[in-house]
Structure formats: C-alpha cells, structure tokens
Amino acid sequence: MNVAHLLSERVQADPDGRCLVYSQGGIDRVKTFREVESECDDYAHGLRTFGLRPGDKVLLMERPGPIFIALTWALFKLGCVPVFLDPGMGVKPLLRCIEQLKPDCLIGLRRAHILRSLHSKAFQSVRRAVVTDGRWIGASPLWRVSPPGAGPFAPHEVTKEQLAAILYTSGSTGPAKGVEYRHGIFHAQVAALKNMFDFQPGEMDMPGFPLFALFSTALGLTCVLPELNPSRPASVEPARLVRAIHDWKVQNLQGSPAIWDKLGKYCRDYGIKLPSVRRVITFGAPISLEFIEMWRKLMDGHGDVYTPYGATEVLPVSLISGAEVMEQTSDRTKEGAGTCIGLPVEGVEVRIVSTSDEPVTEWNDELLVREGEIGEIVVHGEQVTWAYFDDQEATQNSKILQGDKVWHRMGDLGYLDGEGRLWIVGRKSHRVQGPDHVYYPVCAEGIVDQHPDVLRSALVGLGKAPEQKPAVVLQLHKPKLHKDVAERNRIVREVKELLAGHALYGDVKTVLFHKDFPVDPRHNAKIDREALAEWAEKQKEVKEG
To answer: What is the largest CA-CA distance in the chain?
Structure first.
C-alpha cells in the first residue's frame, strides 16, 4: 500500500514517457518517468545511509520543481513522513507549527537553514539536516548525501492505515493544523481524481499548486511545471504561462482561481485563445459566473471549468462543471440560494447536521436536519483524514465517530437539494447571528455580485453574536469609483434594491466599500472575512462618531 508504488507503476507502464517539463536557465527541460524514479531512488539510498528511518518526520522546505518531486517520492519509499508547510502563513505561525511538529530531519533550501539558525528553539528536535542548493553550516549538501547510480530502491512495506505525510492547513480560517494523511487516503484520492475526470496517461497537465504535481505523476500525466511563486500565486506572469501552454499543448490547468483568473483576463484582453485546454480545475475558493464564461470562450468551445469541493482534511467531496452552473444553478444563486457545488463524488457520503459550535463525539441520526434545511456539512469516505497531528482538541472538534466510520465536519454550512446536489452558504464561523435571524454570507453575495460595478462582495457581522447586524462590503471593478461620492451613493442604492427583493437579506442596511479585499496566503483568492469584519467595525465606529 506504499503510495510510492504509484510512481513505480507509471514507470513500468511507460518508462520513457514524459513525466516532467520544467524551465531551467530559460530552457525547457524534460524528465521521463524512468529518470524521475532513478533520481528518487538515488535520494532514497543516500538518505537511508545518512540515517533516515521509517517513521521519521521530515520537514521538506524545497521550492517546487524536479528536486521537490523526486525527494517527496523518495521519502515515501523510505517510509518516512514528509511534512509540508505553507510558507505564505508567515514566520511566527510557521515556527509555532515546527515547534509542535518536532521534526526529525530538515531538508530544504539555504533560506530554510538560515531560519533554523535564527530560531534554533523551534528546530531543536532536528537531528539530521540536508541543504539542497549548495552548502550551509550544520547541514550536509544533497549532492554529497545522494550520489547518483545507486540503483533501484524497493519501497518500504506499509499498511494503508500507516501515516504517509502531514499536510498543514493554510491557517486562513484559524491556526494552521497538521492533517495526517495515511497511505490509503492518497490511493483513494488518486482513484477519485481518475474517476472524476477520466485522465488519460500522457495528457499534458499544468498544476498551480506544488502538491498537485505528485497527483499528476501518479496518474501518468505529463506535468508541465509553471513558473510561479506558490506563496503568492496571484503574482504569476501570464505571458510565461501562455508560452508554456502553447508550446506543450497543455490540456489541464489545476490550482487557485487567482492564477487562472489573471491568466484568463490577460488572454481575453490580448485576444489570445487557448484551444488545447480541455479542463480548468479550480481549488480553494469560489469562482464567479464571469470567470466561467471567460474561460469557456478562451477554450473555444472545446473544454469546461470544473470546481471540486473539499479541504486539506478531505478532497475531493463533490464536483460541478461550468456548464451545469450556467445552465441549471446560476439563476438560483442570483436569487440568494447560495452556491451549488455539485453532486458528491463516488464513494463519498455527505450529510447535513444541526449547526453547532460544540464537539460532537458520536454519531446520532437525530443530528440530521430535514431535507433542504441549512446545517453543517459532514462527510465520510476513503479520502477522509482521521486526525490532526498532536492536536486532540482540534480532532475532537472536527470528527464524529460512528463505529469504525469517521465523519469530518467541514466547517461549512449548506444543504442538499431535491436532486442530491450540495449547496454551500458560507463558513460556520462566518454566519452572522442576529437577534431574530441568521444571515449566510454566500447567499447575500450571490445577490449582490450580479451588480455590474461589483467585482466581489462580502457579508460580515457588526457587533457580537447573537446581536449582530449584517453589513455588505463591496470591492468594485473600477477603483476610481471608490472616490466618487455620487457613484458610491448610486451603487449603494442599487445594491439595496437588489437585496430588497429577498425576504431576509432586505434587512441589510449598511453598505461599505473596500479597495482591495484581504485574501488567504495559499490561494490568494479566499476572502479573509475575519480581517474584513474588523475593518468594517472600525468604519462603523467612524460613521457613528
């Protein structure tokens, strides 16, 4: 059950097939599946000689690219537990996670070892250190640890229940937590992705998030590594992506909506078509109807946009296509029904339970709400992770046990419609709790976002629950409109008219303007509603003053 067998199977099926395409010194390079596994085996031999053993927690802090991919597969083969932290979370949260993790080994760039030198307390558990880009005091160079030519390395034997990796959440909705991934969970995810999209070996895939490259490799896809900073995906240079997509006839684009929104607008503005693309798969944040329409045109009618729903703790849960959104659900979204995120994927059970901020230790059918009623989304399936690393409180707050089944509480609120499709209305922590009603952000935003001047909106609560008042914050397409008092007054009036047509959201009396919404560090697309709510409170205080 070692997940590393997925790479070996691809090598056996097509050893000379293209595995990775990447840019080095301005020149495109290609590695075959055989070459990637050979490099992986060299690393595995060297790291075992260096002292790494099965079960060791290895903090991997390497930039996206061939070395990152080969090292990750090598650690799987060794039976070690690679740990992936999001550098975009900031230094203090990063150090807090490392101190809690107590890694046995650090493998990474010199900047990671500089961080270790400056903050030795957080790294005091590290007994082995490897630097991947040259030399550093107290660390062994990777080229010396793993010289080439050692030969094949047989994967360490494991069961599907054994720990394979620890992936940290981004920390965008609370402190970052380490999610325990078992070998069987990775296998289930690969099978689910294959079933969802019918990926065929040899397809050209461009993953916009480093870990997606591992799934691409396991599925036999050719992974065209984009030139982008994973800590700031929205800073990508679109022209480079266009060149790679055209040169390699890329068929699949995966990653944050922030990447593909910037690329799509660049192509739209310069009249560029991307006819080779068949699938744009976005993760991490909702996408707009404008986004779907734009990309369906760029693909020249040959492809579609897909939005899988999930989280670090369980992915995928459900799936919806752009065509289904445009043809079947968008009108309801504009009326305040929330956002449809599709039917649950095969093998995943989805239930809606009563909303609660308290732990629920054991499953009880009395938790279930009536059909069509809004509640908390909970899921079960082979892709569901069992626990957070060394965080019993977080595990108890997020998991419900039913015999040997584990239900994960998504932290999102929603409902199932008559056709079994899942609709989302917002995060549980983002609901606005007033004295008489509960207001759900995604429902209100679906109404407001159809205004032609609104780029995006956010419903936030003013005051403390359960006495909160709802307020809508707007970010406009044209920044200059923020300074025009007459235009702002017009937009406020028109937005309130849109909301007035809804029995509940007609209660919204406060409309504010923000030039640039704060967003999460991982995807650069998910609105940081906590920060926005704090800002809105201050604006209210100024107005009342």
So the answer is: 74
> CATH second-level architecture of 5-14+33-181?
3-Layer(aba) Sandwich (3.40)
The stretch 104-128 carries a mean pLDDT of: 97
Alpha helices in 198-248 (DSSP H): 212-218, 238-248
How many CA atoms lie within 13 Å of 42's alpha carbon, on the beta-carbon side? 16
Q: What is the 3-state secondary structure (H, E, C) of 277-289?
A: CCEEEECCCCCCH
Task: Give CATH for domain 431-544.
Answer: 3.30.300.30
Q: Characterise 456 by phi-psi region: left (phi > 0), alpha (psi -120 to 50), beta (else).
A: beta
Using the predicted structure, report yes or no on whether residue 417 has a pLDDT greater than 60.
Answer: yes
Give the type of residue at 395.
Answer: T
d(C-alpha 224, C-alpha 64), whole Å: 12
Whether residue 384 is predicted with pLDDT greater than 50 in this model: the reply is yes
Q: What is the CA radius of gyration of the chain?
A: 24
Please tell me the distance from the alpha carbon of residue 185 to that of residue 162, in angstroms, as a whole number. 10
Q: Of 79, 209, 131, nearest to 523 (Cα)?
A: 209
- Number of H-type helices and E-type strands within the chain: 17, 26
Can you give the residue ranges of every domain in the chain?
A: 5-14+33-181, 338-429, 431-544
Give the pLDDT of residue 545. 36
Q: pTM score, two decimals? A: 0.94
How many CA atoms, within 13 angstroms, populate the side-chain half-sphere of residue 4?
31
The answer to whether 434 touches 457, Cβ cutoff 8 Å, is no
- The span from the CA of 335 to the CA of 332, in Å, is 5
Q: What does the pLDDT look like over 522-537, one tens digit per residue?
A: 666 788 999 999 999 9
Cβ atoms of residues 48 and 79 within 8 Å = no
Per-residue pLDDT tens for 50-81?
999 999 999 999 999 999 999 999 999 999 99
Region of residue 216 (left: phi > 0; alpha: psi -120 to 50; beta: else): alpha
Contact 98, 83 (CB under 8 A): no
- What is the pLDDT, as a whole number, of residue 228? 81
**Which residue shows structure tokens 């030795």?**
120
Q: Flag whether pLDDT at 208 surpasses 60.
A: yes
Domain 338-429: CATH superfamily is Luciferase; Domain 3 (2.30.38.10)
The pLDDT, as a whole number, for residue 301 is 84
> Which 3 state secondary structure label does DSSP give 253?
strand
The reply to whether domains 5-14+33-181 and 431-544 share a CATH topology is no
* pLDDT tens digits, one per residue of 470-486: 999 999 999 899 889 99
